[in-house]
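Wait, can you check?
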Amino acid sequence: MDDNGESLRVIEAYGDLESATRVVIHIPGMNTGPAAYDDLGNSDARRLQKELNRLAAPGEKVVVVSWADYDIPMGGQEAAMSGRAKDGGQGLARFTEQVKGMGIPGDKISVVAHSYGSTTAGFGMQSGMDVGNVIIIGSPGMGVFMRDDLGASDSDVWVGEARRDAVADLAAFGTDPSSSIFGAQSFSTTGSTGHSQYFDESSRSLTNLARLSLDQEPIK
């Protein structure tokens, strides 16, 4: 929060949206206020962009958008309720439609969401967000009990969970998305531990986030 008690609101594009052939929307987790944005928003998105550029096919122009255009909860008390994720999800659904309006097909849009951002992405899907891939990591839940409850049947939902990630173990907002009963596809984050290593450079997690965003098979 800033000195006025307001949450950070940011939409930051890394690259030229007008010439993009593919867009990856990154949604950071809770506590991403002004003081933390460089580490939790900007830095993670830039590392993802670097890996996407390394793996993209020749001629493909991938733009990463760091999307934090809602009242992100600051602290566990605010994050314990789903209201902010619901509001954010509606805004996210509207934003993806704006991206489509720029000429990017829905199947060329991916959402990569971390922590509470994955809850927001879940409510985005329930609000009509229909994109190619929804890729979540360190998720406390997507606001539903089963993948089919999210809607957007044409979207591929992928879930990664690191060892000893206490937030992902909460299942605070519905069924744990990494569980077999939820119905999402899983990918490897081997080598990452805890809640904050998913975007580490040279990690399997980061490589798989990029590969899935590019419609490539994840590495095991």
User: Anything to note?
Assistant: Residues 199 and 206 are 5 Å apart (CA to CA). The radius of gyration is 16 Å. The first helix runs from residue 37 to 55.
